[in-house]
Specification:
Elements (H helix, E strand, L loop, with lengths): L2 H17 L2 H8 L5 H10 L17 H13 L6 H13 L9 E3 L8 E5 L4 E9 L6 E7 L5 E7 L5 E7 L9 E10 L2 E4 L6 H33 L1 E2 L2 E2 L4 H31 L4 H29 L10 H11 L6 H29 L2
Parallel strand pairs: 1-4
Antiparallel strand pairs: 2-3, 3-7, 4-5, 5-8, 6-7, 9-10
Helix pairs in contact: 1-3, 1-4, 4-6, 5-6, 6-7, 6-8, 6-9, 7-8, 8-9, 8-10
Length: about 375
């Protein structure tokens, strides 16, 4: 990373370490908005990391934003920073100015995420499991029309142009707001045509990659906590880290952490290279999302086995991470959904095209 890149990442890490404490996270799960944390994030400009200067942002690289998202995952951040970055990137792709207030993204459709209908002027239907909807100042939706164009819609909750938007509160496994939105002929506050082929599937793929990057950060922190605890916990007169069986388990955990970090980083680099979710980037995102569930299931289980009952206590950091991991693994499409999609793509390559296609994804960078 360049000097500017390091400054952005170091700033994010310092803020998260200081202000995303277990007490703050627990309070957020009880419905208390962490105002000091979000204010520090806004003042540092982290919400604008992915936004070009022409659209009111800081003009940093995509990799900078993914580094911030990974740090946020590692800190179990209880605010919608990742969602705000996603929403801002989509708005900027439409050439719109982007502010620093919390935002989130609702998918047009997607099985367990509800179904929305855009008639060209207003949006109707239900969107399920929208992250932090009750805390967002605006909701961003990407719609595809009957032609080749797609549009990005912004619904500012305090200034809808018409219709209504209702929020029904729900929570995910981690206790975070994962709300239901009901659009009743809601007219967007702003809308714009999207550039570079960005469409609704791009929004879903970016969400899937974001969850992979967050999970990579959370698993890395969980591994650090597990190693630290195994060296401190004494059983039969010596630290449990000295027992060979536990060493094997922790080594397996480390392997899963390395695997999901490699997959997520590779996909993030592919998106950064093109600054859009092109075909090559989509393949890497599908690969990372397909790999996520195994990494989460194995890693979280080992972490809790090593910690025992300690990892489930209200004050401990581990359960903040693992409950988010269990929630993130199925968002924006489960492993089975992405496995089918990736499998269909690979079948199109054929036997002779398999290896050239795999190496071409890496060679382009």
């Amino acid at each position: 990373m360049s000097e500017t890149d390091n400054i952005i990442f170091d700033t994010a890490t310092r803020i998260f370490d200081d202000l995303s404490t277990p007490e703050v996270i627990n309070a957020a799960e009880q419905g208390e908005w962490p105002e000091a944390l979000w204010q520090a994030i806004e003042e540092s400009g982290l919400t604008l990391t992915w936004i070009p200067e022409a659209n009111g942002g800081v003009g940093a690289s995509m990799l900078d934003g993914f580094a911030v998202i990974k740090a946020a995952g590692g800190a179990a951040l209880p605010v919608p920073l990742a969602e705000t970055l996603m929403a801002g990137w989509l708005l900027a792709k439409g050439g719109l100015e982007v502010g620093m207030e919390p935002m989130t993204v609702a998918l047009l459709s997607g099985g367990d995420r509800g179904d929305l209908n855009w008639d060209g002027s207003s949006l109707s239907g239900i969107a399920l499991s929208v992250p932090h909807a009750r805390n967002a100042k605006s909701i961003v939706v990407v719609v595809d029309d009957s032609g080749d164009k797609s549009q990005v819609l912004e619904f500012a909750l305090n200034s809808l142009a018409g219709g209504s938007l209702e929020i029904s509160p729900h929570i995910n496994l981690a206790g975070e707001p994962w709300d239901t939105l009901t659009f009743n002929n809601a007219v967007p506050t702003r809308c714009a045509d999207l550039e570079d082929g960005t469409d609704a599937s791009s929004a879903e793929a970016l969400g899937a990659l974001t969850r992979c990057v967050q999970a990579a950060g959370a698993m890395s922190t969980a591994l650090e906590l597990t190693i630290e605890y195994s060296m401190e916990r004494v059983q039969f007169g010596r630290p449990i880290a000295k027992f060979q069986a536990l060493q094997h388990s922790v080594a397996a955990f480390a392997g899963q952490v390395a695997a999901i970090n490699a997959a997520a980083d590779s996909a993030a680099e592919a998106v950064t290279f093109a600054n859009v979710i092109d075909h090559a980037a989509w393949i890497e995102i599908a690969t990372a999302k397909t790999r996520l569930e195994e990494a989460v299931n194995t890693g979280a289980a080992i972490a809790h086995q090593v910690h025992g009952a300690m990892g489930f206590t209200y004050e401990h950091r581990l359960h903040h991470l693992t409950r988010r991991l269990w929630s993130w693994r199925d968002e924006y499409g489960s492993e089975s959904v992405w496995s089918v999609r990736l499998g269909e793509e690979v079948l199109q390559w054929g036997a002779e095209g398999l290896w050239p296609s795999i190496t071409a994804v890496s060679d382009r960078r």
